[in-house]
Specification:
With 279 residues, the chain is an alpha/beta fold. It has 2 domains: 3-124, Rossmann fold, CATH 3.40.50; 133-277, Rossmann fold (3-Layer(aba) Sandwich), CATH 3.40.50. It has helices at residues 17-24, 46-58, 75-85, 100-103, 109-116, 145-158, 186-192, 195-210, 225-236, 249-252, 256-269, and strands at 3-9, 31-39, 67-72, 90-94, 120-124, 133-137, 161-168, 216-222, 240-244, 273-277. The radius of gyration is 19 Å and the shape is elongated.
Length: 279
């Protein structure tokens, strides 16, 4: 897969985490990368332009450097405008720091981009030198083929293993589910062919169909979605969280506000980078 990537920077050292994550995921070799610098009104452009050049050098592959684009205005608005102007597969932003793109990180710019981008979003923090543990979460809806495909490709590129996780609330997916399901592990749920087990099995099959070489382990947790996802990341030290994109309210009905809120909270509180996949 050849990626068309838009890497966004405000010139701060923290925003360079996006470039570091692309390198850690090994997505620079077969990608067409453009670097977008957004300068807010009244700010000196010298530091920004120098930082963009440094990023271009850092991401140079086989003598080819990424192109650099400059825009002025509000970071989120300019990122959206640039993303809409070209056919990118992935938009990358850093999520640490105090100014520019990074000051809007908590549920503001990242959440806005997740809702309105027509492409996938990678929000980067705590970037490791390499990525070998990826957590891919699937909701109570049918596993998204796009989420599974992109998640598998990203993990395989990095040489990482995938934990495919579903969080089961205190109420089972089905009213007919027996109470034993509420204490099931992924393995027992799959063996008993409970609804959650079938759901995880379908997800694993979808991943392996998209990327046969990827290593996948199913995981079933019980409790509140955000709490359990964050606990899993911390306990297993996952370095990347992959979730499906916000869905339009007309597509997800009553679940839309819940899914939006979950994604916003994970963007805000996840101690690792977050990839939000949109088909």
């Amino acid at each position: 897969m050849t990626w068309r990537i838009l890497l966004c920077s405000d010139g701060s050292p923290a925003s360079a985490s996006g470039a570091a994550m692309l390198i850690a995921l090994r997505l620079t070799q077969d990608s067409q990368i453009s670097i977008l610098g957004v300068r807010e009104q009244g700010h000196d452009s010298t530091r920004l332009e120098r930082a963009l050049q440094d990023l271009a050098v850092q991401l140079e592959v086989a003598g080819s450097r990424p192109g650099i684009r400059l825009r002025r205005g509000h970071p989120a608005e300019e990122i959206l405008a640039e993303a809409e102007s070209s056919a990118y597969d992935l938009v990358v932003v850093g999520t640490q720091g105090a100014r520019g793109l990074t000051r809007f990180r908590l549920g503001s710019t990242a959440g806005r981009l997740a809702r309105h981008l027509t492409t996938s979003l990678l929000a980067c923090r705590q970037t490791p030198a390499s990525v070998d543990r990826v957590l891919l979460c699937v909701s109570g809806e049918e596993p998204s083929a796009d989420t599974l495909r992109v998640g598998g490709v990203v993990a395989a590129s990095a040489g990482a293993t995938i934990t495919l996780m579903h969080v089961m609330s205190q109420v089972a997916l089905s009213w007919e589910s027996p109470s034993d399901d509420l204490a099931a592990t992924a393995e027992s749920a799959i063996e008993r062919k409970s609804r959650e087990g079938v759901f995880l099995l379908q997800g694993m099959e979808g991943l392996l169909a998209a990327v046969p070489t990827v290593s996948v382990t199913p995981r079933l947790r019980h409790g509140l979605v955000v709490d359990e996802v964050l606990a899993e990341i911390r306990q297993a030290r996952h370095q990347l969280l992959i979730i499906g994109a916000h869905r339009a309210p007309e597509a997800s009905g009553r679940l839309a506000p819940f899914l939006d809120d979950v994604a916003d909270q994970l963007l805000t509180h996840a101690p690792c980078s977050v990839l939000i996949v949109r088909g």
